[in-house]
């Protein structure tokens, strides 16, 4: 295993931080090292945490970190934050809520800017997760921006997707729509100390029992948690661990791989098309309505 990945396996935090910076900056020199980076992984359990704003995602992630540390696990965290409109950097709101773990050598937290990407993730989140895996962190928690019901991209990357809901926010109705709850593997009704929490959990269980979801699977379990006190967090950690085996069944693993390769194909095609000599002329033709976007895309791909 060549540098810098040997340093990652040795637990070096500074090499990991430098590698993540290169990943976020799109360092082209990393392209040739991707096979080695993936080979250096330890098959960490990648857990996505998503949900609407105000549901307490960051506080729940913080509570999960504490629970896993009590169990002796090394935890990696990628907190995807909204981008600054000036610097395009992460605002760091999520990381501030997890500062109690900042000095723990067995917890590595990284805030990543979404940089305008839709779906709640940054374009390089999957590669950053691979770097944390190579560094020996397991599980790896990925917390999304928290943009609402359209934030389903995390299900393409994570092995286990936890959707966090809060009682009395009206989100129970969303279970019957195509959207965020449809891709949940587990649902955590957070802020369980509120009077409406048991009712919200019952409604979600009833609705999700008949709603569509991921292929070949049972409706997601609905758990009640109170992240500020830790109530229900050990049970959630147990449920996440139990889902690891389900997530690694061949059909689920193949579906996740297909989604990741499709995303990579789309990104690579867009990059190559933009670098082609026909890009500007094609854009002009579409802008002048001389060419429709689909035909334009076909011509760029053919070229």
Structure characteristics:
single chain; 303 residues; alpha/beta; seven-stranded parallel beta sheet; 12 helices; globular
What does the secondary structure layout of this molecule look like, with pairings?
Blueprint: H1 5-9, H2 13-24, H3 34-39, E1 46-50, H4 57-70, E2 75-81, H5 93-96, E3 107-113, H6 125-134, E4 140-143, H7 154-157, E5 160-165, E6 186-189, H8 197-208, E7 221-224, H9 233-247, H10 250-275, H11 279-287, H12 293-302
Parallel strand pairs: 1-4, 1-5, 2-3, 2-4, 5-6, 6-7
Helix pairs in contact: 2-6, 4-9
- Percent range of helical residues: 40-55%
In terms of per-residue confidence, which ranges show pLDDT below 50 for 5 or more consecutive residues? 174-178
With strands numbered from the N-terminus, the spatial order across the biggest sheet is 3-2-4-1-5-6-7
H and E string? HHHEHEHEHEHEEHEHHHH
Rg on CA atoms, Å: 20 Å
Structural class: alpha/beta
Structure, described:
The protein has 303 residues and is an alpha/beta fold. It has twelve helices and seven strands. A seven-stranded parallel sheet has the order 3-2-4-1-5-6-7, with helices on both faces. Helix 2 runs antiparallel to helix 6 and helix 4 crosses helix 9. The protein is globular, with a radius of gyration of 20 Å. Residues 174-178 have low confidence and may be disordered.
């Amino acid at each position: 295993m060549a540098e810098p990945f040997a340093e990652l396996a040795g637990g070096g935090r500074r090499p990991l931080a430098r590698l993540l910076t290169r990943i976020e900056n799109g360092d082209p020199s990393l392209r040739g090292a991707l096979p080695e980076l993936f080979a250096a992984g330890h098959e960490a359990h990648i857990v996505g945490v998503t949900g609407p704003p105000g549901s307490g995602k960051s506080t729940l992630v913080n509570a999960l970190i504490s629970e896993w540390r009590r169990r002796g696990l090394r935890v990696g965290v990628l907190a995807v934050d909204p981008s600054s409109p000036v610097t395009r950097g992460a605002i760091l709101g999520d990381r501030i809520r997890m500062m109690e773990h900042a000095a723990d050598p067995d917890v590595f937290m990284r805030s990543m800017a979404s940089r305008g990407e839709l779906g709640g993730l940054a374009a390089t989140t999957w590669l950053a997760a691979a770097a944390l895996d190579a560094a020996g962190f397991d599980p790896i928690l990925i917390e999304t921006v928290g943009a609402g019901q359209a934030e389903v991209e995390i299900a393409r990357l994570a092995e286990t997707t936890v959707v966090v809901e809060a009682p009395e926010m009206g989100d129970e109705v969303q279970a019957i729509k195509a959207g965020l709850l449809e891709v949940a593997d587990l649902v955590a009704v957070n802020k369980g100390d509120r009077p409406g929490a048991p009712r919200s959990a019952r409604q979600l269980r009833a609705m999700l029992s008949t709603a569509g979801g991921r292929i070949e699977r049972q409706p997601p379990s609905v758990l009640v948690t109170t992240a500020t006190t830790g109530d229900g967090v050990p049970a959630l950690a147990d449920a996440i661990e139990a889902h690891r085996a389900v997530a690694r069944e061949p059909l689920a693993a193949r579906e996740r791989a297909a989604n990741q390769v499709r995303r990579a194909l789309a990104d690579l095609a867009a990059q190559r098309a933009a670098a082609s000599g026909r890009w500007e002329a094609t854009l002009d033709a579409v802008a002048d309505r001389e060419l429709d976007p689909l035909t334009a895309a076909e011509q760029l791909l053919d070229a």
